[in-house]
């Protein structure tokens, strides 16, 4: 790892962007008298904290970052190498490599033992954990038991408030992420054909997106005859053969160059779409436009949920019981989420996904697009038309 050079990274974030984040985070830490932050991730889809601090994604093994208020970071990760950082490890003072894997329960103490030593050496008095839901119980238990007298608090809100607002550098990467979604959507008429299995279609979409710079892909899709609800399924269930006349729903949720996520959802028909599908689509699209008109700085996410549900119910569809809108960035889903308990209001520079669902036993219409919050309202970033598409 020590020989890794910057040219190994396909789309690095500029130094100025990392420095901007660190400056904001450290200022917020000092205001709250927090001596260091601790964060841990083990994947990319919902592992944005590690990448936000380091520009390097977490993978299948937990990566722990210790971010002091007055010094460079320490990174603890699976591996054999400990020592100085490599050329790609910006803002990192020291890397600690340890042979720990969650399936080997006797290694559970390796990472927290190293973290405890670092925190003691830093003489921290107040430690803030970021994203407690991502931190293993074994890590937190060991850490808290071996640092008596040190105050441990939840600093997630501190980081989320900063992370949710995108800088001009981040927005430039976000537009690239949206662009590859548009490109994939434009290619689907050539990929969706009768006789192909859903997994074959998904494989072609993933290959195309990887060539365009995507690192991680979530493709949910489903196919069904007209007049029935098209399912939205994870890859494990993509074993149906597409037939002539079918309607095919595809939801593309991938990160793009630089690691930023976006998403798009549309339906493609191998024949004339049913009236039930077109009616449901019109409702889902109208709901999205209603919510989009409310995407302004200061907007309360709970009010967006209420407006969406009241509209769906007025059209005879069920209200949302799932997450129909949320922020995006280094995480597939991040704050603010359009739910009742969200405390972060919308701000200029936030990037969100809005995907209302109008469905019944005869139709499934899922209209998904991304919006960038501006000072005056919201910009729909996708260029793909908001239609049900017919493949001749």
Q: In words, what does this structure look like?
A:
With 392 residues, the chain is an alpha+beta fold. Helices cover 32% and strands 23% of the residues. The chain is built from nine helices and 17 strands. The chain has helices at 15-31, 48-54, 110-122, 137-145, 156-163, 168-191, 198-211, 275-293, 301-314; strands at residues 36-41, 63-68, 73-78, 92-98, 126-130, 151-154, 217-224, 247-255, 261-269, 325-327, 334-337, 351-354, 357-360, 363-366, 369-373, 378-380, 389-390. The strands form four sheets. It has a six-stranded mixed β-sheet with strand order 4-3-2-1-5-6, sandwiched between helices. A five-stranded antiparallel β-sheet has the order 11-10-12-15-16, sandwiched between helices. The radius of gyration is 23 Å and the shape is globular. The N and C termini lie far apart (51 Å). The relative contact order is 0.12. The mean pLDDT is 95.
Which class of secondary structure composition applies to the elements?
A: alpha+beta
Number of strands: 17
Q: State the distance separating the first and last CA atoms.
A: 51 Å
What is the helix fraction of residues, given as a range?
25-40%
Instruction: Tell me the number of helical segments per DSSP (H or I, 4 or more residues long).
Output: 9
Radius of gyration: 23 Å
